[in-house]
Design a protein that fits this description.
Length: about 500
């Protein structure tokens, strides 16, 4: 996260030295880099800190939400263990009875993954929001309905986790609110990287760099705050860079660029195709995905409603014969007459099992198949990175580590603002809101240094548009402050 003083501060050990009006020559071989990064770190901390703080606190809550969810919704998620569950057809019929004559249509079934779990029968409901489904929870031993809740996304998040997720992602403001999380995720990595470099530069100048890895118990005030900020920051730096990189994949502007980059490099995640080729020509249904005529939609709904619940048992059995070998499974009926059945694994914990297979509705033959073992290295890393970010890859341990990391980031933001306040000159009313690291670092850089900084700023700004826009805003603020300082100095000289 960020802090006014920075996110991963300049160091942790001795008390930070006062800012000087010239670059620190001990930062060789690039003496201009430290002052430049220090100023960037400062402005990013001051202006982006509140956004990162919110993202950190909501992220900490989301990290532990899967465990909390299982406790709060135990009645819906749990049932007496049985080694002889009823057929899925009986359980689906029970769920259909609850749905009745509503406009909801059966969209997926998640059988109980192990004894003691409930079966989840899900329906598309036009009254719900995007990516939301109505889930009926059924006791697999008795076909008794034990719950009726709204679930969200492929993770099947229940209402509490969904609320926290939307708060973390968009502050419940929809697509507009998602810019906040993209802004925070984009700058988090930059601030962490800048702070880490500042820590390294300072470590090179100290006699005991290992002492900078732990908070100092000596001193009070600024020295102690700085020590906590820097030492926690350096330990959290890798985690911050990871959260930034994976968080950007969900963003709107930067995420779109990530998707394009992965496509250009053939790093996309494989997915089964549900298209049946020319099968539609034999059954009189010639429409395809994307057609929107009323007649075709009516046919699709009619076909969907006519699905035999017993087919789910058959599809699950056929999936087991091909490549489905885990209890965490989702079965999706055809979306229309031109689509195939899908049986897919949904185990996101390690070892990851997300194999999938599709079957032709008429011939019951395999039409496509994707195995996780066939994923490319980049696709596997992407899958693991997202699941690690969400706290599902390593279960409770994963969630605890993420929660501690997020709380640490939030603490660094607070420590940064405290340092900014503690650094303020007590007897200088003009700087009652804290001092700013001196400018001039880039002016002292050689031509290649200036070129490298400009190219990096342009590249990052194009790939992460919100960073580019905010960089320009930082520059405008910095120039305005510089002009104001010069005016004051001229007036003082004139008087």
């Amino acid at each position: 996260m960020t802090t006014p003083s920075s996110t991963v501060p300049e160091s942790s050990g001795p008390e930070p030295t006062p800012h000087r009006d010239h670059p620190d020559r001990s930062d060789r071989p690039v003496p201009w880099l430290g002052p430049l990064l220090r100023r960037l770190h400062f402005y990013a901390g001051i202006l982006v800190g509140p956004f990162i703080l919110i993202a950190a606190l909501t992220g900490a809550a989301y990290a532990i939400s899967p465990t909390v969810e299982r406790a709060i919704y135990a009645d819906e998620l749990s049932a007496p263990a049985t080694d002889h569950p009823l057929p899925l057809a009986d359980q689906i019929e029970a769920a259909n009875t609850v749905i009745g004559d509503s406009d909801a249509t059966l969209s997926a079934v998640r059988p109980a993954s192990e004894p003691g779990d409930t079966t989840r029968v899900m329906y598309d409901d036009p009254s719900l929001g995007e990516s939301e489904s109505r889930a009926i929870f059924v006791d697999p031993a008795t076909a008794e309905v034990v719950g009726d809740l709204t679930v969200y996304g492929t993770s099947g998040a229940l209402p509490l986790r969904t609320w926290i997720d939307q708060m973390h992602r968009s502050l419940h403001l929809g697509d507009v609110g998602r810019f906040y999380s993209e802004f925070a995720a984009s700058w988090l990595g930059i601030v962490a990287a800048a702070g880490l470099v500042l820590w390294i530069l300072r470590a090179r100048r100290t006699r005991k760099p290992t002492a900078m890895l732990r908070p100092s118990r000596k001193g009070n005030g600024l020295r102690r705050t700085f020590s906590w900020h820097a030492s926690v920051g350096v330990w959290a730096a890798i985690g911050m860079l990871f959260l930034s990189a994976t968080g950007i994949t969900w963003s709107q502007l930067g995420g779109e660029n990530v998707t394009k980059l992965r496509a250009a490099l053939s790093w996309e995640t494989p997915a089964v195709s549900t298209e049946l080729g020319g099968a539609s020509a034999t059954d009189g249904h010639a429409h395809h995905h994307g057609d929107s005529s009323a007649a075709e939609e009516a046919d699709s709904v009619a076909d969907h409603a006519a699905i035999d619940p017993a087919d789910f048992d058959m599809m699950l059995s056929m999936g087991h014969d091909v490549n489905i070998d885990t209890g965490l499974v989702e079965i999706l009926p055809p979306a229309d007459a031109d689509s195939a059945w899908v049986v897919q694994e949904i185990q996101r914990s390690f070892p990851t099992k997300v194999d999938a297979v599709t079957f032709d509705t008429e011939t019951m033959e395999v039409t496509d198949r994707v195995d996780f073992s066939d994923y490319g290295a980049a696709a596997k890393l992407a899958r693991w990175g997202i699941d690690l970010h969400m706290g599902t890859l390593f279960g409770l341990v994963n969630q605890i580590v993420l929660c501690v990391l997020a709380l640490g980031i939030a603490a660094m933001v607070v420590w940064g603002y405290v340092m900014w306040w503690q650094r303020r000159p007590k007897r200088n009313p003009a700087k009652r809101f804290g001092s700013v690291p001196p400018r001039g670092g880039l002016a002292d850089a050689p031509w290649w240094g200036v070129g490298a900084v400009v190219l990096a700023a342009v590249a990052i700004g194009l790939f992460l548009p919100l960073v580019g826009i905010s960089l320009l805003a930082f520059l405008v603020v910095d120039v305005a402050l510089g002009l104001r300082t010069r005016r004051r100095e001229r007036r003082a000289m004139a008087s």
